[in-house]
């Protein structure tokens, strides 16, 4: 092998233009595919962010009542009772938003009153027994007591006073109180003092937050009403989600036939919609990567065939001088390996350049070094597979070719 | 002569079908991918108000309290009720409209049709002429209707089809959230892309189907569902939005020329300073007056994914072109013998060059045609994606033409080096080696 390299380099210098083009193509492919695979991985990681809730058992139904709205609380209770009566319903509540549900409610959060600006912007969740209904796991402290809940519209109209308690997620608890337990600490949510009584494992925001702080959320003991944008969140027994959803819509229509059902969806679909653009991007990047590798492989086949065709006499001479078929095969394989290596080295530099641009423009993290050996291996293999057919054809050139032309 | 070149080119292309197909495919894939993503970008970054977007402006103020003040903070894109009304009633622009988003259940007189929710816009009379909204029947309401909070409405084309089978429904009644509104106008199909006048409801949200005077909507307690940003500790009650410490209305003004812009800007600055002096605004007086396109630019309306896709497609195209150059070079060089014979028989370098470029151009045309198919397919896939914006992606005539030109130009450029290399072959050398 090693003896072959010098003559190969000498030959390649005579095909400088085509060889350069091939190296360039491999380099560009390497750079684009490395970054594409990186972005795909990034999107997949985001898409699979755990929500910590009973995803496949949950659904959301939003309705809109027509005409004057009186006796809101009694009507909510009647709706909830109707849904509870459906066989297979494990829990139901009216809540303001769902993890990755698209409808975010945000509040500024401060650690104490003297602080002028908010420490963090947190997503807030309301709804009686919301955490219990969704199936969020409690890590420490307790859930809300029934007597701590207040109707959200009563609070807004100042007809009721807040019970000043809240539940935070573990991520937020650790961000706010890195050195001690958050339980019993007081924070200010939207200006209201709140004592932390519980810590949830996680409860990701509905939308609009950066990935690293998507779990910075607070649960408040407020009873939500549909007129304020609340939806009915229902948890069904395992495997009965589809039927319960249909029955729940019918039950809500039964309570008031004149109402409009704005949305009735299983949670899996809600989550799917939230990540639809990321999924589309991942699919697109995968297809482009495959297409790029295919185009590059075909390009290698085309150019290698051309070289083989051009060098038939030269190959014949070598065969006549005693080179075996395997020698000829190795010659073209080594040639491809050299070209691919040059392409890979250039491609890696390019890949980091593109990555630097992406980091600036799209706030992507740095391309991990692990991509280098993997990308190199893939391209070497691709080159070897692509060059095999032309190389075999070269190996089959008979020694007698030396006497032709 | 050209006909002869084409004939020669076709014959040569037929001789190496696999290579030709490969080149055409590479060009087509590159062109198709680039055109698909460019079309999407073109649609999403388009001018929603062609010919007029430079005359329509959004006055921006900062009515927030001192808490968390940071001079580098962006100004709100919405206004409070008080500021909106003050600026609206000042009539310092040719036209002005104050508006907010809603969603209202609509009920048909036909009991067989279930009530359904449509997006609504609560606005003032100038909305229609300012945004060049086309009417099919009737017209917008009057300033007097705004003032008297008349129970009138303009409905969209879709809603008119749904409720009145597309007939002229002017004068009839639409039941919105239990409130009877007299229809004064029916729109022709209309949708602003991007949904520039209110990005809070989504950058590319679908058009509204019910338009109601702002005052009427507030009187009738029609459901509001637009963006809301509040400050201070007082919670915002739906009923008390007029006095709440919240921005929730969009204000747009139409100004005819640069002089009008300068004078409106001066007026706006003066207004902000007055409010600071009055103690209503706690932060230093700051204003802005972007026009439509500048506003869209500042708000980064075009999704960053779309730009990323365009770059990706161009990268892909570049690889395909490099691939094509390499293959074409191989193909042309393989014909060195043939070129040598033609040169020896008296063909000039120029004519060999022209003939080889013709061959490249034919690949370009073929690549363009197949690429168009790829672009159509790509856009069909884009339209299948969820999301309001993606459904808008259609190839238009200009893009079609660009596809061909780019394809031919790219392959010609790709053919230049190989053709030049090949036509430099010395005739004698080649003949000898035959």
From TrEMBL, chain A:
It is found in: Cell membrane. Its main location: membrane. It comes from Luteibacter yeojuensis. One of its GO terms (molecular function) is transmembrane transporter activity. The keyword Cytoplasm does not apply. It holds the Pfam family FtsX. Residues 287-399 form the ABC3 transporter permease C-terminal domain. It is a multi-pass membrane protein. GO terms for cellular component: plasma membrane. This is FtsX-like permease family protein. Keywords: Cell membrane, Membrane, Transmembrane, Transmembrane helix. The chain crosses the membrane at residues 20-41, 281-308, 337-358, 370-392. Residues 36-251 form the MacB-like periplasmic core domain. The keyword Transmembrane helix applies. Belongs to the ABC-4 integral membrane protein family.
UniProtKB/TrEMBL annotation, chain B:
Coiled coil: none annotated. It is found in: Cell membrane. One of its GO terms (cellular component) is plasma membrane. Residues 20-261 form the MacB-like periplasmic core domain. It comes from the Bacteria. One of its GO terms (molecular function) is transmembrane transporter activity. Keywords: Cell membrane, Membrane, Transmembrane, Transmembrane helix. InterPro entries: ABC3_permease_C (IPR003838), MacB_PCD (IPR025857), Macrolide_Exporter_MacB (IPR050250). The chain crosses the membrane at residues 21-44, 310-330, 351-377, 397-420. Residues 312-427 form the ABC3 transporter permease C-terminal domain. This is FtsX-like permease family protein. The lineage of its organism: Bacteria, Pseudomonadati, Pseudomonadota, Gammaproteobacteria, Lysobacterales.
């Amino acid at each position: 092998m090693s003896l072959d390299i010098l003559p190969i380099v000498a030959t390649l210098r005579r095909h400088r233009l085509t060889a350069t083009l091939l190296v360039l193509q491999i380099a560009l492919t390497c750079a684009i595919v490395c970054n594409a695979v990186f972005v795909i991985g990034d999107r997949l990681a985001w898409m699979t962010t755990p929500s910590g809730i009973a995803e496949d058992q949950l659904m959301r139904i939003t309705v809109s009542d027509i005409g004057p709205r009186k006796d809101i609380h009694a009507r909510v209770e009647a709706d909830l009772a109707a849904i509870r009566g459906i066989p297979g319903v494990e829990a139901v509540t009216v809540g303001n938003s769902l993890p990755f549900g698209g409808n975010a409610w945000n509040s500024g959060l401060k650690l104490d009153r003297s602080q002028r600006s908010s420490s963090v912007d947190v997503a807030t969740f309301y709804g009686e027994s919301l955490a219990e209904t969704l199936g969020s796991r409690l890590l420490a402290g307790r859930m809300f007591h029934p007597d701590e809940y207040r109707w959200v519209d009563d609070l807004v109209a100042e007809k009721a006073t807040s019970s000043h308690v809240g539940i935070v997620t573990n991520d937020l608890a650790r961000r706010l109180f890195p050195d001690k337990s958050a339980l019993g600490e007081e924070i200010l949510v939207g200006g209201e003092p709140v004592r932390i009584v519980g810590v949830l494992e996680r409860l990701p925001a509905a939308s609009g937050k950066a990935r690293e702080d998507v779990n910075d959320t607070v649960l408040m003991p407020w009873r939500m009403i549909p007129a304020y944008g609340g939806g009915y969140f229902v948890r069904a027994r395992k495997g009965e989600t589809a039927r319960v959803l249909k029955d729940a819509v019918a039950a809500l229509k039964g309570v008031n036939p004149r109402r409009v059902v704005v949305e009735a969806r299983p949670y899996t679909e809600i989550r799917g919609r939230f990540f639809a653009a990321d999924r589309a991007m991942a699919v697109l990047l995968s297809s482009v990567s495959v297409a790029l590798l295919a185009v590059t492989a075909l390009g290698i086949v085309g150019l290698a065939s051309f070289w083989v065709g051009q060098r038939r006499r030269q190959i014949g001479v070598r065969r006549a001088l005693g080179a075996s078929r395997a020698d000829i095969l190795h010659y073209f394989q080594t040639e491809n390996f050299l070209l691919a290596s040059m392409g890979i080295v250039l491609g890696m530099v390019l890949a980091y350049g593109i990555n630097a641009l992406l980091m600036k423009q799209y706030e992507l993290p740095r391309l991990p070094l692990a991509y280098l050996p993997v990308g190199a291996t893939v391209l070497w293999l691709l080159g070897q597979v692509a060059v095999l057919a032309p190389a075999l054809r070269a190996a089959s050139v008979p020694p007698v070719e030396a006497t032709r032309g | 002569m050209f006909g002869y070149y084409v004939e020669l080119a076709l014959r040569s292309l037929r001789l190496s079908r696999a290579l030709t197909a490969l080149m055409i495919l590479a060009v087509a894939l590159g062109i198709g991918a680039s055109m698909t993503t460019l079309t999407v970008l073109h649609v999403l970054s388009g001018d929603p108000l062609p010919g007029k977007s430079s005359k329509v402006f959004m006055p921006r103020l900062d009515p927030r309290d001192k808490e968390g003040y940071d001079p580098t903070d962006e100004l709100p894109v919405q206004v409070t009720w008080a500021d909106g009304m003050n600026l609206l009633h000042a009539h310092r622009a040719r036209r002005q409209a104050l508006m907010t988003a809603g969603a209202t259940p609509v009920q048909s007189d036909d009991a067989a049709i279930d009530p359904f929710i449509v997006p609504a816009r609560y606005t003032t009379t100038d909305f229609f002429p300012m945004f060049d909204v086309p009417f099919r029947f009737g017209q917008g309401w009057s300033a007097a209707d705004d003032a008297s909070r008349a129970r009138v409405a303009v409905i969209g084309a879709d809603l008119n089809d749904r409720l009145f089978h597309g007939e002229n429904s002017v004068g009839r009644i639409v039941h919105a959230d239990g409130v009877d509104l007299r229809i004064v106008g029916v729109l022709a199909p209309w949708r602003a892309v991007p949904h520039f006048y209110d990005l809070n409801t989504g950058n590319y949200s679908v058009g509204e189907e019910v338009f109601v005077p702002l005052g009427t909507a507030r009187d009738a307690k029609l459901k509001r569902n637009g963006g809301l940003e509040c400050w201070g500790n007082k919670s915002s009650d739906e009923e008390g939005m007029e006095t709440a410490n919240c921005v929730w209305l969009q204000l747009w003004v139409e100004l005819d020329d640069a002089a009008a812009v300068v004078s409106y800007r001066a007026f706006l600055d003066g207004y902000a300073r007055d409010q600071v002096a009055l103690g209503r605004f706690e932060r230093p007086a700051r204003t802005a007056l972007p026009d439509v396109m500048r506003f869209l630019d500042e708000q980064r309306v075009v999704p960053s994914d779309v730009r990323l896709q365009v770059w990706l497609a161009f990268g892909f195209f570049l690889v395909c072109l490099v691939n094509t150059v390499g293959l074409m070079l191989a193909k042309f060089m393989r014909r060195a013998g043939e070129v040598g014979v033609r040169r020896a028989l008296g063909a000039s370098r120029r004519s060999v060059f022209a003939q080889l470029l013709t061959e490249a151009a034919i690949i370009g045309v073929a690549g363009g045609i197949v690429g168009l198919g790829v672009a159509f397919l790509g856009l069909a896939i884009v339209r299948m994606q969820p999301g309001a914006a993606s459904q808008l992606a259609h190839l238009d005539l200009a893009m079609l033409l660009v596809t061909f030109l780019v394809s031919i130009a790219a392959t010609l450029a790709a053919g230049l080096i190989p053709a030049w290399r090949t036509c430099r072959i010395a005739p004698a050398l080649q003949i000898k080696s035959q």
